[in-house]
């Protein structure tokens, strides 16, 4: 089967091979025919080595498709079922799961160290234990979450990561209050989803911050009340909050520099939500006095900061009701053979989400 493979960490292009085989099928596992997958910035981060991932590997973790085959003991799905790929399935028995913090379950991360593909030259890993830039993937049964028939594969793919992450950051982690002021730094697919979440919660002012004009324009369509470049943020802070700072600031880039900017633009007693996935050697510096004196809440948000399955259901309900726009997030579509075009679209910032149709 065909798949897009990164041979070595640090390379900026993927190679399309047709000799890839999905491996590991057996009890408790399922085989999925991937129909659509989104390109998430985390895929680029893994390719660059920012996020740890063994190579060679197949990127992609934001996917949807249909079940081809189920292993022994799998009862919640059957062949022919439509599913979204959940790259962080909950085991249900670890301490985090028992506390109700299923987004902190480590079971899914353990899958990333086990190859689930092979080529004639040897084993190939799937990013985050999945690897959806391919025609078929074998994953643990918990990674396959059934979706209703009225949810298109491309929409379902977005729900598998970016939308769940951004919406959840606003609805679960921040719990944005009605009438509040919000700034979102980084307005790709995840940032725009955070904007939609803040709008749902009734934020009075939502300032979108991004260096790319097309993304700023898109943010206004999704609910931002104004959109500015990073250089214009100080003026927006003064205009919207009289210089005090925003009630909530979402950092959706994953860099210490933007996290520091987000902290400085959060009001005293306000909330900074860290959504972007950054590097282990990129440190955010805060002095002990400001940490104490400002009393700002710093809340990391992992995969939307809530139960993933409930978040999927909520997102579908909101989409059906017309309360959120998911179709508009898909600004570009490419076939798997043109995957490197999708990478360029994300690197230059011209896309919110590119759907890879397989």
Written description of the protein model:
With 358 residues, this protein is α/β, with parallel strands linked by helices. The protein has helices spanning 41-48, 95-98, 107-111, 153-159, 162-174, 189-200, 213-221, 233-241, 256-264, 288-294, 308-320, 339-348, and strands spanning 3-5, 15-17, 21-22, 29-38, 57-58, 62-70, 82-85, 117-119, 122-126, 136-140, 144-146, 181-185, 205-209, 226-228, 246-251, 266-274, 297-300, 330-335, 353-357. The strands form 4 sheets. Strands 4, 6, 7, 10, 11, 18 and 19 form a 7-stranded mixed β-sheet that branches. Helix 10 links the parallel strand 16 (266-274) and strand 17 (297-300). Helix 5 (162-174) packs across helix 6 and helix 5 (162-174) packs across helix 11. The longest helix is centred in the middle third of the chain and has 13 residues, at 162-174. It starts with a strand and ends with a strand. The model has no long low-confidence stretch (mean pLDDT 96).
Topology at a glance:
Layout (H helix, E strand, L loop, with lengths): L2 E3 L9 E3 L3 E2 L6 E10 L2 H8 L8 E2 L3 E9 L11 E4 L9 H4 L8 H5 L5 E3 L2 E5 L9 E5 L3 E3 L6 H7 L2 H13 L6 E5 L3 H12 L4 E5 L3 H9 L4 E3 L4 H9 L4 E6 L4 H9 L1 E9 L13 H7 L2 E4 L7 H13 L9 E6 L3 H10 L4 E5 L1
Parallel strand pairs: 5-9, 12-13, 12-15, 13-14, 15-16, 16-17, 18-19
Antiparallel strand pairs: 1-2, 3-8, 4-6, 4-10, 4-19, 6-7, 7-11, 8-9
Helix pairs in contact: 5-6, 5-11
